[in-house]
Design brief:
Pfam families: FlbD. Helix content is 29%, strand content 30%. It is α+β, with helices and mostly antiparallel strands. The chain has a single domain, classed as OB fold (Dihydrolipoamide Acetyltransferase, E2P). The strands form 2 sheets. A 3-stranded antiparallel sheet has the order 3-4-5, with no helix packed on it. The radius of gyration is 16 Å and the shape is elongated. The relative contact order is 0.17.
Length: 77
């Protein structure tokens, strides 16, 4: 889950896998797969960065629980 902020400064967590589109015109609007819309104070770039960080964290946890080393950078062949 990522945490975003409504225009009234309340925060909520949202599942980034359910975001279909993000519009910035001028407010950032998250359009969900079920058609729900959320207007947030974060910029589109900030939302995308939070999604990327969340997914990287999930991948790191998956490697950590398997006792494997987390890959760092491109693999050498």
């Amino acid at each position: 889950m990522i945490i975003v902020t409504r225009l009234n400064d309340t925060q909520f967590a949202i599942n980034p896998d359910l975001i279909e589109r993000i519009h910035a015109n001028p407010d950032t609007t998250l359009i969900m797969v079920d058609g729900a819309n959320f207007i947030v104070t974060e910029t589109m770039a900030e939302v995308i960065e939070r999604i990327a960080s969340y997914r990287a964290h999930v991948i790191a946890l998956a490697y950590d629980t398997q006792g494997e080393e987390i890959p760092r950078g491109p693999r050498k062949l």
